Amino acid sequence: MPANLTPQYLEADRKFREAKTTQDKMKALEEMMATIPKHKGTEKMRAMIKTKMAKLKEAAQSRPVLARRGPSFHVEKSGAGQVAVIGPPNSGKSRLIAALTGALPEVGDYPYTTRAPAPFMMKFENIKVQLVDTPPIAPEEVETELAELIKTADAVLLVIDLTDQETPSILETLFSRLKEKRLELVGESLGRTPEAGHFFKKTLIVANKSDDLQAEENLAFLKEYFGQGYIFFPVSAARGDGLEDLRERIFRLLDVIRAYSKVPGKKADHNDPFSLKRGTTVIDLARAVHKDFFEKFKYARVWRKGSQSFQGQMINRDFVLEDEDIVELHI
Ligand SMILES: Nc1nc2c(ncn2[C@@H]2O[C@H](COP(=O)(O)OP(=O)(O)OP(=O)(O)O)[C@@H](O)[C@H]2O)c(=O)[nH]1
Ligand SMILES: [Mg+2]
């Protein structure tokens, strides 16, 4: 049945989509509810408006409680590395995670859709990376639990909204508030070493909603304003632009390598790599494979893609591995 929406309703709907504050959103939703024709054809729409209203109300009431959430912010690590996906309300964190993982975190066109951190696995080639969706970060007052989650993660994706004119000031506030919590978001290389008790986190700034008309101009401004220290990586979670490259950038950000262990006379299993920190030596791999290999290690042989020198070459325990090395352990 056609919905036969009135101009008054459409106007209220437009106001809702353009509303920036919770209060304005609520007012627009109430207006939508009052002006929507009430018949069978609009049943679903009315239910949706009600759900949105309930969510907004709940979010507004529960924010202080959220701040005291505590231990539930901890997320058990799994896969090749844990990446905290953080950012201001509505920047598209959940939608980006959905696009990268195929999972279905809740996405909503109102702020505070995501209420608690939740892990999702992203496939990159033959490994999996854990992406942790988080509730929106409040730039003026970053919750301690969220800061702790960032400190324990292996890397950070900071998702920003290229359609929001406030983004530069949000970033500025966020960076300085995090610094007060002894947490510095840095680019792909750490550069300096942090003082004791301070944390540096490798961060990629994902500039989302590149599909918008304003996006290009806003991105250029951000790059100019924040200079060389940060990497802005434009994507559109909605349209899929840039996502394939983003997967690879996330993997590189983690600074892990993949190594394959093989038995003599057999081929390595490329579906089952060991993921290890860059700088890992052969003896660390032996330890990861089995404690017998670690305890009884004699030597190993290595095959390296594109290398003349390492095509079955004998190596000792201190040999530093590179991404995609194939190793035959001998005991
Ligand atoms: N145009 C456009 N809209 C997007 C894009 N990504 C997300 N959105 C929209 O932005 C709104 C917010 O998306 P979410 O994924 O819920 O944002 P979030 O950052 O998880 O929001 P919170 O959980 O409230 O912090 C939704 O209406 C999305 O459909 C994009 O690439 N382009
Ligand atoms: Mg979300």
Describe the overall structure.
The protein is of the alpha/beta class. Helix content is 36%, strand content 21%. The chain is built from ten helices and twelve strands. The strands form two sheets. Strands 1, 2, 3, 4, 5, 6 and 7 form a seven-stranded mixed sheet that branches. The protein has a five-stranded mixed sheet with strand order 9-8-12-10-11. Strand 6, helix 7 and strand 7 form a beta-alpha-beta unit. Helix 1 runs antiparallel to helix 2 and helix 2 runs antiparallel to helix 3. The protein is elongated, with a radius of gyration of 24 Å. The protein starts with 6 loop residues before the first helix and ends with a strand. About 2% of the residues have low confidence. Guanosine-5'-triphosphate binds next to helix 4.
> What's the helix-strand series?
HHHEHEEHEHEEHEHEEHHEEE
Distance between the termini: 74 Å
Q: What is the tally of helical segments? A: 10
If you compute it from the alpha carbons, what radius of gyration comes out, rounded to the nearest whole angstrom? Answer: 24 Å
How much of the sequence lies in strands comes to 15-25%
Fraction of residues in H or I helices: 25-40%
Bound small molecules, deduplicated? guanosine-5'-triphosphate, magnesium ion
Q: How would you state the average pLDDT, rounded?
A: 90
Q: What would you call the shape?
A: elongated
Count of β-strands: 12
Low-confidence stretches: 65-71
Largest sheet: 7 strands, mixed
Overall SS class: alpha/beta
